[in-house]
Amino acid sequence: MNDKTILITGSTDGIGKQAALELAELGARVILHGRNKSKVRQVLQEIEQKTANNQLDFFIADLSSLQQIRTMSAEIQRKYCRLDVLISNAGVAMNKLEISDDGYEMTFAVNHLTVFAFTFLLLDLLTRSAPSRIIIVSSMAHSSFLNFENLVKPRHFDGWEVYCQSKPCNILFTYELAEKLQNMGVTVNCLHPGVIDTKLLRVNFGGGSPVTEGSRQKSAGHCCGQRT
Q1: Considering only Cβ atoms within 10 Å of each terminal Cβ, which end of the chain, N or C, has fewer?
Q2: Is the Cα dihedral 166, 137, 198, 84 positive or negative?
Q3: Which long-range contacts (CB under 8 A, 24 or more apart) does 215-220 make?
Q4: DSSP letters along 158-209, please?
Q5: Average pLDDT score over residue span 15-40
Q6: What is the pLDDT of residues 69-95, one digit of tens each?
Q7: Catalytic residue flag (residue 104)
Q8: Closest residue by Cα to residue 138 from 168, 108, 105
Q9: Strand-pair category, 186-192 with 222-227
């Protein structure tokens, strides 16, 4: 992994932070992302101390803002000439209706529109770095259908429902993108990480059972969709 550059969105907590730590331990150049600069710096220093990996970097953006996503992607492309892996991990689950600055329901904005926009903004960099990978963290809690009338600006807001509606968007996007990129050396996967006791789970869904290292490794293998 010493020659790999890996970008992880939402890497200051939970799954993203653990992934960053373990990839740094393997010697990869890991690019962290977060909204709060002081927190990202703190996490970067913590990972650096634990792994002795000095190939860590970070970028700051609020992923509910399409303008900040554009700005961050431009900064990444100015600084890096290759990107081997993009892990779209950042996600939210809202307890009340919030609308992003761009006019979208917040869960849909962060969980899907961010993934869509950020992936395409970095796609040239990823294809130039082929063989490369795009990994999208979805969930088995996805809805079996999409209610388009209640997706972008819900008429009747329910936090669990809008979260479940955002996740099939990830899965459908994965399959469509994988098909388009299948002859370009870019592998696209989405996955269900398992029920893990993260901040998102505790704050929005009342908590979950603590996950041991063994169960974390086991749950990480559950795929919702895949194209290679």
Answers
A1: C
A2: negative
A3: 216/18, 218/194, 219/192, 219/193, 219/194, 219/195, 220/191, 220/193, 220/194
A4: -HHHHHHHHHHHHHHHHHHHHHHHTTTTEEEEEEE------HHHHHHHS---
A5: 97
A6: 999 999 999 999 999 999 999 999 888
A7: no
A8: 168
A9: antiparallel
Domain boundaries, given as residue ranges, for the chain: 5-227
Q: Letter for the amino acid at 22?
A: E
Q: How many CB atoms lie within 10 A of CB 223?
A: 12
Read off the amino acid at residue 206. Answer: G
Identified catalytic residue from 80, 104, 163, 175: 163
pLDDT digits (tens, 9 = 90+) for 163-195: 989 999 999 999 999 999 999 999 999 998 855
C-alpha dist (Å) from residue 152 to 65, 67, 91, 113, 167:
15, 18, 16, 10, 14
- The structure tokens listed for 38 are 């002081």
3 is written with which tokens?
Answer: 């020659």
Let me know: does 192 contact 138? Beta carbons within 8 Å: yes
Superfamily, domain 5-227: NAD(P)-binding Rossmann-like Domain (3.40.50.720)
Whole-prediction pTM: 0.84
